[in-house]
Amino acid sequence: MKKSLVALAAMAVAGIASAQSSVTLFGVVDATISGFSNKSEDRNAPTLESLANQTFVNRGTATTSQTVLRNSGYNSSRLGFRGTEDLGGGLAASFWLEGALNNDDGTGTAVGGGQNWQRRSTVSLSGNFGEIRLGRDYTPTFWNDTVFDPFGTNGVGTNLISTANGYNNPGSVISQGGFTANTTYTRASNSIGYFLPPNLGGFYGQFMYAMNEKTSYDPGRLTPGNAATAGNERAGRYIGGRVGYANGPLDVALAYGESTVGSNFYAGTTDNLDTWNLGASYDFGAVKLFGEFSNAKLKRDSSRPFVATAANPFGWRTPGADGWLLGATVPVGAGLIRMSYSAVKYKNTGTYIDQVLGFRPDPKADKFALGYVHNLSKRTALYATVARVNNKDGADLTLGGPAFVTTAAGATMTPKSSTGYDLGIRHSF
Known about the structure:
Blueprint: H1 2-18, E1 22-41, E2 47-50, E3 55-57, E4 61-71, E5 78-88, E6 91-100, E7 120-127, E8 130-138, H2 140-147, H3 160-164, E9 187-195, E10 203-210, E11 238-247, E12 250-264, E13 269-283, E14 288-302, E15 320-332, E16 335-347, H4 352-357, E17 364-375, E18 380-392, E19 407-408, E20 411-412, E21 414-428
Antiparallel strand pairs: 1-4, 1-5, 1-21, 2-3, 5-6, 6-7, 7-8, 8-9, 9-10, 10-11, 11-12, 12-13, 13-14, 14-15, 15-16, 16-17, 17-18, 18-21, 19-20
């Protein structure tokens, strides 16, 4: 009986596959040994510890460290299915289901421990007009951050532009500028996307609108809650686009996106995180160069008159961040050397008076990363990466691992540096 059921299941799967022009099972299993060391320091003047003994003390430095076995140090671990059906006349229907894998401990990635498809889950229709894609997908603004990063926003080498947008440190760096966590930085759910056809002489483009699927009320006063318990009635919306040109060794692209990260109906405010970035790469053969500039601003639209605050006395100070990256890859036989330098500077994070008088300059950080990948075959590679982040003026970026020590024996500790490494293996199928 069991053998009959197995046979029937196999026949059903074969029937489904034959109805498609192509159905593919694919994936990546990536495991890495990673080490982290995050250092804070006491930047206050020496304080009096004992009046009787006339002793003074400064708490010096404090370090948190950790060694872990994790996944996705080179490529993101994943499992996926994709398929295409030829509808004739140049028209095709496709699906793509792709989920993350926690192969380091075998746990699932969804609530309850089951597999999900949150990396990408789309169905699309394509033809001479391009492609219309529905579902959960990468946002246009994220593509530049990962395509023009020699480390592909994976592992300790991930560029600081990506980290500052909350990819590695959600809620940490974003708070430097008063940003609210951006849930649509990497991907957006409930999206409608359009892609230009591939036959435009090297020009390409992507446009996306993602719905927040929140309930609207008319009249607005019926919105649940009150001024003290207002929720994010408009949060989760994304609209953006990316256009580029790729021909031979050159690839250059410009992207813009607007993410609604918060709102308060009763206060009459909507917070949008506006991001634009420009990236480029050029392959000389012996070396491939990468570069990117990114700008993010948190803008608040209000239906009520402006009220001056210490942080924004004139209404024109907008919290934000500028980021930039320079990188390169150098092929060496069966291997590839990767390197990058990236930096982030926050703007308008303190009060206006503090910044005018120089009491609190805007936080900033820079990072250097160096790595090597050795390809054992087309599908299997060994890799090693080392990186270091230097924080200044209150920035708190890390490569990952444990949090910075913020207090020690009553003294305030300021984040200083974060160092780390990845040693791993990647196999794709």
